[in-house]
Amino acid sequence: MATTKLTLISTLKFLIFMTLFTKPIAQSPNYVGDDCQNSTEQSLTTTYKSNLKKVLSLLSSDAIVSKGYNHTSIGANTVDGVYGLYDCRGDVTGSFCQFCVSTAASDILQHCPNRPSAVIWYNFCILRYSNHNFFAKLTTTPSWHILGSKNINNPQEVEKGEDNMQSLIKEATMESGKLYAMGEFNLSDEKRYGLVQCSRDLSENECNQCLEAMLDKVPKCCGTKIGWQVLAPSCLIKYDDFIFYQLISQTSSPLHDSAKQGGSSSKSNTLIITIVVVLVVALALMSLCIYFLWRRYHSNKDGLMSKTITISHHVDIHRENSLHGDLPIVPLNWIRQSTNNFSELCKLGEGGFGPVYKV
């Protein structure tokens, strides 16, 4: 009985907590690609494997408190030295960045087992490690490109798209110095969105070289598509017809990158959140009702509410003084008083257990 009560109370507390703290759930980072640095599986030393795990763990832990970028090393300048770096997208920080880096740190060991060097890309972050010091060194190979499904209908889009991306490259490397920039562009009556970013261990000049190299690949690899992305270990550029980033001046939570359109994603998220909140509130109210009904039932059953049997105008017998919880124990002198000392005038008749008197 006590266990049931505690279970109901715990359930109620959980439902109330869920109601108060239910928020939009960030989408898991989307895997984009990886490269094992053209290396084959090798028999890595135990020390190197240990150092690699430590580096990946340090990077994952650091991501939650950093501004979206950091690098570290263990055993530097030794044969078993490991160098690691993560870089989250410019609009992604805190727990979102940490979630992406942690996912990457786990996946990179599965995608590139027993490799001395590797890099893995996600929509929110990039993670690299190597047995050689690559910090502050421009790396444009290997490069990847990803294409959207929509074809270009406006012949001016290719030229205007490149011009707009050039303006973002300038902003990232010369104006802001942040090594990343994002923005929207008008194309007739439509909107286009772009993002450029470099690994933040590069100089502004190296960042510019990397981004220009990626943009030079667009006409050949991606010129017929509205949406595309070109990326390398040191930088990336992305262009599409839906907003896939979060403006820095607003909340730091990233938008869902897999949405086909920004508006439909927002409406879908709002609907899901509303449904979840309504269900949680309904469950909380239902649990409250069940709990109070249960309490009332057991209060009545166990005699928690004192009941009284009136024997006369002046004599009360409480069920708290009862035999087996059912039949009250009545003092003999009370019975004599109530029946006028078993007077024949109070006798109602004979029963199977003897005379019956009225009181």
From TrEMBL:
Its protein name is: Gnk2-homologous domain-containing protein
Q: Which residues form the signal peptide?
A: 1-26
The record's similarity note reads:
Belongs to the cysteine-rich repeat secretory protein family.
Residue runs in coiled coils: none
What Pfam families does the record tag this protein with?
Answer: Stress-antifung
Q: What keywords were assigned to this record?
A: Glycoprotein, Membrane, Repeat, Secreted, Signal, Transmembrane, Transmembrane helix
* Source organism phylogeny: Eukaryota, Viridiplantae, Streptophyta, Embryophyta, Tracheophyta
Query: Where does the Gnk2-homologous domain lie?
Result: 30-134, 140-244
Q: Where would you find the membrane-spanning parts of this chain?
A: 271-294
Record keyword Transmembrane helix present: yes
| Cellular component terms per the entry's GO annotation | extracellular region
Q: Where in the cell is it found?
A: Secreted
InterPro entries, A to Z:
CRR_secretory_protein (IPR050581), GNK2 (IPR002902), GNK2_sf (IPR038408)
